[in-house]
Amino acid sequence: MAVAEMRVSRRRRGRRGLPWSGWAVLIITSVIALFPMYWLFVNALTPITANPPLTPILWPAWSLANIQRLLEGNVYYLNWMLNSLLISSAITIWHVVFDSLAGYAFAKRRFPGREILFWLMLSTLMVPIHVTIVPLFIVTNELRLIDTLWAVILPGTANAFGIFLMRQYIQTLPSELEDAARIDGCGELGVFRHVILPLATPALGALAIFTFVRHWNDFLWPLIALTRPQNYTLTVGVANLQGEFATDYGIIFAGASLAALPMIIFFFMFQRAFLEGVRMGAVKG
User: Fold this and answer.
1) Considering Cα of 20, then 22, then 28, then 31, what sign does the dihedral take?
2) For the ranges 126-135, 137-146, 263-272, which has the lowest average pLDDT?
3) What are the tens digits of pLDDT across the range 99-119?
4) CATH of 67-283 given 2.60.120.280, 3.30.70.1020, 1.10.3720.10, 3.40.50.170
5) Distance (Å, rounded) from C-alpha 160 to C-alpha 145?
6) Which of 51, 54, 156, 167 could form a cystine bridge with 106, CB 3.0-4.6 A?
7) For residue 209, what pLDDT is reported?
């Protein structure tokens, strides 16, 4: 009875919505969080060559002069964007495939040493990325992959966090559906493809967003692994737009704003799956 009353009260609160004070806090927090992004695009659309003014520009001049100078003065910018898109997309696809397979194995399959292997894998999250830079560079150099896109793609094909996320979500799926699929003649790959993947779509969407945004913004390893300007990613390329003696801030604002657009588009494409994954992860288990 108490559980039923709690559910009814939650439904009533959901129908009423947040009080005005809650909406005020959300609006103020959203404005504070989004203002730097807004200021970035405003400066990108305002002709700036020297230092930006001390007082923030709140309204753009709706000029594409900065973007035009960026594309005319730097022949590699489109290469950088294509490189970042290829690297982030490839790593995201590999993550979705490998992390979901490993998560399914750790969640639903029983084999000797499963728990030990899982906790050993999870313990790698405590290892800082900076500790792995030197051995990763040595291995990549021995494979003759330095200064190629493969040097950035291959080390990111799987991740302990992605495996943990998929394992935790797949554990909440009822095992009766798998048993029914096996009775109908499905093998393990068939169960994974026709039962697990459709039900795990919210978690896969969240994993895709986390992975794409993380590797789109990755800076340290691409800076080390890529040496020629035409092979740079956007983060490395935009950082190199800063001059040694003088800096054209208009070009930097334009380059940073164009680099942020794909992330924004990617998030809005998968935001429903992302929010659904967060919501279901909060109420299950």
Assistant:
1) negative
2) 263-272
3) 999 999 999 888 898 899 999
4) 1.10.3720.10
5) 24
6) 167
7) 84
Helix (H, G, I), strand (E, B) or coil at 100: helix
Local structure of 94: helix, strand or coil: helix
| String of DSSP letters for 163-192 | HHHHHHHHHTS-HHHHHHHHHTT--HHHHI
Q: Is the dihedral of CA 95, 100, 106, 109 positive or negative?
A: negative
Q: What are the boundaries of each domain within the chain? A: 67-283
Put simply, whether the predicted model's pTM sits higher than 0.85 gets the answer no
Eight-class DSSP state of 200: T
For position 14, what pLDDT does the model report? 47
Both tokens of 275, joined, read 């929010």
Q: What's the pLDDT score for residue 54?
A: 61
